[in-house]
Design goal:
eight-stranded parallel β-barrel, homotetramer, 11 helices, four-stranded antiparallel β-sheet, 2 domains, TIM Barrel, about 35% helix
């Protein structure tokens, strides 16, 4: 940390500042310069960083010289994290494909779709039991019954499952019935929920908040990691944009940025990222080419009857074709693209 | 609702569509036009609106002709809602001023600040017991102890209190100890929390989500109202902007837009809305001139020692001057500005 | 066009409105409904659309039933436009690769880079002679001398060239010396410039404005097309985002959206779209997988000496590897991905 | 400037870097630290700042210690700039009110509106002769004839005039006929136009670009100032937002931020800032309370007949009432609000 002093600092203010640095367990090395005196502060900066030093009388500027140390950073861990969900592995160079309906609507609908996504080559089954809906008057999911249908579909097809949780009081039921728990975009900063999931040790699929920077997102992951749960998969699903052409603005560069900052796996959700079925295949393929560890897609046997997100669901046949494309692109990626630049 | 049919619709598709409309309890009136046949659909549209009609074969376009009916709308209630918090009234033409620290840090700090904001002319005391923090390593509030300190400060000063809740499991403790419960920007779409607060009947201060449209925000209020709790106050606190000059982009026009759409009171938070103490007074004054029902400001006895949001806190003297300005502007507003255009 | 009348409309107001419709050369068909009387207006709506009908007394709502007819739309032309730049074709299924320095700095620098990008497999050479710079104190390009160096480099290497123009007074010099003229993001709405380029008939590379919706962008293209110049190539280069991790927020879904709306070719600029050299290869590959007709990349022989945009320039060797990747991905795309869903 | 060296820097790299600093006419003072060796670089940094130092081998980080010196900054000039437009002064504590139609449509329309805005108490008359329109098929203004009508209306009423220019080739005609030349939001970065206006010496009303940060905006002003023309007035008119409730997102905090950074006057345009006539009065009042030096409002004698921006134009009577409100608020502001905190 570098503190630039105000030329008008009084000797008392200067002494108080040095005391403060020392009280925080750090050392300051003073150097005169044309910008005013500089204090180069070293040691364990944790305590000092939490203080509003810029407001202390006599301080003109505070400059960070080291990045905040976090469990999600490449400084902490260089090898990629691989998260195991049942027998499926996410991260570390492979491509994990996830498909299924937005919402679990009935045993019949879920099972038919589960079989179809399995036949298409998906690795995991998604399905919402607790549905966040903008309007309180929309269908809000089957709740615990939906979780049980997911468990049954998993037993039947052998596909591990992922489903969203919104309320810390539902964590236990989710953890018992599904293999991976999703935190949706609206709850990325639901810190009590994140802590609860951190304590569960269960795999967590953490979607990016709609107005979250990549740093905000990694700090949300940190809430889970800090509880001792390393099983976090990040999911880019678009941020709020100004163009109504798409439901969200899918930020595929985030995949590449994350590779330079974190060891956690990153998957992409082109369904919420675009909001329109016809835009899902090109964006899913682009996600694979950008280096994503996986793709999660909404699939419905008959989109025109879906109770939520009907416009962005693929039919099973379209999903099957897309899975083929993605596997092919991933094989090209694997053999021909040097990993160093991604 | 208007449905524009595809010229290539088959008789079977047309018949199925009409059955669907009828099954939903509505009537369709068919009219030929140069755009293709038009169906003007009337009746109770609730069921039909939840269906993905645009995906039904033979349908080219679906146009809404009436706005979604909601409890927060002016169609539902024309006279302004007045929310009572203890003996204080928010809404209906007055100006309610709220001040206090970002976080409750100690009995001493809270009480000293509470006395100062009361002396400055504030109507309510704010203070955070559960603090949402981007980093899990930041100070996260005193929890239940903080709530008790708020109750004590309220007894001592006579000021009603407002404090944030993030976890549905904390609602009971909050409702017991503080007079108004705040839902923060990160939890605007924490639907389980909103329902819990709706059932409590307690006054709710609902902050706008950082990437929420005004419609999204009113639908969040609807979650509380739909549980039978009419005591909702909206709080504009800025949305995510692209200019790092300010912490958020304060959308004062939202105050004027809300006047055209809802009967609920609206207050403004210039502290989070700007993030810098020196920008708080001009934006607080602008909020009053824009017609806000109140203003909520962070005040700390010594900002340079604050454990959170230090850079945006006003000192008690600055808050006192600001309260005078705001009262004066409100009096001008009241006597000289016709209410019709605001 | 559908006009919903206010139930309180007076007979005089209704008569005046019908006169207005007729005076604009259209016909109105009146239909009673539960929403108030509906007027279905048919005929050539051009005149009527320019009028503020919503403000006419007695009108409650105006709903468009047909999209604005434009020369860029798929309604106007279904087969893809192919723009010829020298002997190079952009659009229609191939992949056009463009490389070169941000700014032309010297004969030597340009020629060395031109040879390198040609060797790497690029089809066109880019280079800025007139540089838009945020600060008036930055290097602003060599102007007409830069254009002449581009012409020389083109003669030497055989690569057609593209360079930016900002001032209508420079159009003639640009058109004389380079094969394609670029309109930068800051000038997307410089309408006088667009008209001048439209009249030139020269190929135009039209970058997306930093806060332009796709509709805004297509309307800018329309300014060129409406002058009788069909040679417009669109270039996605990112919009303003809120996360400082990247210089812009590259909107790759725009490529897929444009496929559903226009016959014009679309290329992608991952250099400005990300602002960091290490993010360029993954985003370039993603652009190809998303279906772009081409990619434009900044290449500098020694980025650490570049006079502008140094941080986003690739070295020639990295560009060569990337060209190989992109050609490979395009071949996969061509043979295996059904064109229908993109 | 502070350069943090990579611990792995070689002696040759270090020597080359020091040579580079010296060649740029600066001095470097080396200091060891726990972050690696630090070079504190002093002297005239202009040359060095233009170099991509971060890319030089052996450099880990470059930190600016002084802000970029600009003619618009408070470091350069502390007393507020007052721009004289005819006999009217903008800046320095007063409130300048500007009204008039979006577009000059006819002699009759302009003169009637000019008389009305004068009677309402406006100081300047606005009116567009060259209209930037998203669609090439919209009304694009009367051009030079419009400028002449403005000159006539000014002679008749005594009001100085302001009108937009978009093309450097029209600057001379504008400067001859109107008293202040406006640069619109789409042309904030039309650098050739800014330079031409800088050389004219004429008063310039510089609107904020739709996606411009405050720093971008001040750098655009710098283009005019650097040509020796100090007569620049900034105009906040809203940035691109994500909520369709308003046409733009009016950033009133920008007024307060600019007070902390520049001596140039700042006015606000609530007409484009909101896009709806009913939102204009509250936002105009808020602008005055926020400390703006003036407000510019679109006024049309019959908005329902306006050829552009009809929905945001005030009728003359509404403008008159608003002028009264604004003058009253400004008088309160003047007498009762300490200037120090704005």
């Amino acid at each position: 940390m570098l503190i630039v002093l105000d030329p008008a600092i009084t000797p008392e203010q200067r002494a108080q500042l040095l005391d403060r640095v020392q009280a925080a367990g750090c050392q300051a090395q003073a150097t005169p310069s044309a910008y005013g005196e500089l204090l180069i502060v070293e040691g364990d900066l944790d305590v000092l960083k939490r203080q509003p030093l810029r407001l202390v009388p006599g301080v003109r500027k505070v400059v960070a010289l080291s990045s905040t140390y976090t469990l999600s950073s490449l400084e902490h861990q260089q090898e990629p994290t691989v998260v195991k969900v049942g027998r499926v592995r996410i991260g570390g160079g492979g491509l994990t494909l996830i498909g299924g309906p937005c919402a679990v609507e009935s045993a019949d609908q879920l099972l038919e779709t589960a079989r179809a996504v399995k036949a298409a080559g998906a690795d995991l089954l998604r399905g919402g039991a607790y549905k966040p809906r903008t309007s309180p008057y929309s269908f809000r999911g089957l709740g615990i019954d939906g979780l049980r249908l997911l468990r049954d579909a998993s037993l039947e097809t052998g596909l591990p499952t992922v489903s969203e949780v919104m309320d810390p009081r539902h964590v236990e039921a989710c953890v018992t019935n599904v293999d991976m728990v999703q935190v949706g975009t609206r709850n990325m900063n639901n810190f009590d929920l994140l802590i609860e999931l951190g304590q569960s040790g269960h795999p967590v699929l953490l979607k990016r908040g709609r107005s979250a920077t990549i740093t905000d997102w990694l700090m949300a992951a940190e809430y889970v990691l800090a509880q001792g749960n390393p099983n976090v998969v990040l999911c880019e699903r678009g941020v709020r944009g100004f163009d109504p052409s798409t439901r969200n603005l899918l930020d595929l560069a985030a995949v590449a940025v994350l590779r330079t900052r974190t060891h956690l796996p990153v998957i992409v959700d082109p369904s919420h990222g675009t909001g329109h079925a016809q835009l899902v295949p090109p964006m899913a393929r682009a996600a694979v080419a950008a280096g994503a560890d996986g793709v999660i897609v909404e699939v419905h046997r008959r989109p025109e009857e879906a109770l939520s997100d009907a416009e962005q669901a693929l039919r099973p046949e379209a999903f099957r074709d897309l899975c083929e494309d993605m596997r092919l692109l991933a094989s090209v990626r694997k053999s021909d693209i040097p990993s160093s630049d991604a």
